[in-house]
Fold this protein.
Amino acid sequence: MPPKDVIEALSKLHYDVAGFALPRALPALLDLVSADRLLYGSDYPFTSAPVATALGVRLAATDALGHTEKRQMFSGNAARLFPRLTGTKKD
């Protein structure tokens, strides 16, 4: 079998940016994938509500993503991946 292209395989995954994705992890991740592969799952209740909120605020304020990309990360990508949870049908 030919060797696997690890970068190509990683670029097909989805990534949760909960935790401390800024200032380094998110920009590095965006070198590998586009914003349609990002999800913000706050890790609540394992991450306290104030910390999860603060991390969400930092992500909302970052210049690493545009407005549409942030909307995708916070809800659009999850709705696309899990349509039954939103009451919509997947294409």
Notes: The longest strand covers residues 15-16. The helical segments are 6-11, 25-30, 49-61, 67-81. The mean pLDDT is 92. Residues 67-81 form the longest helix (15 residues).
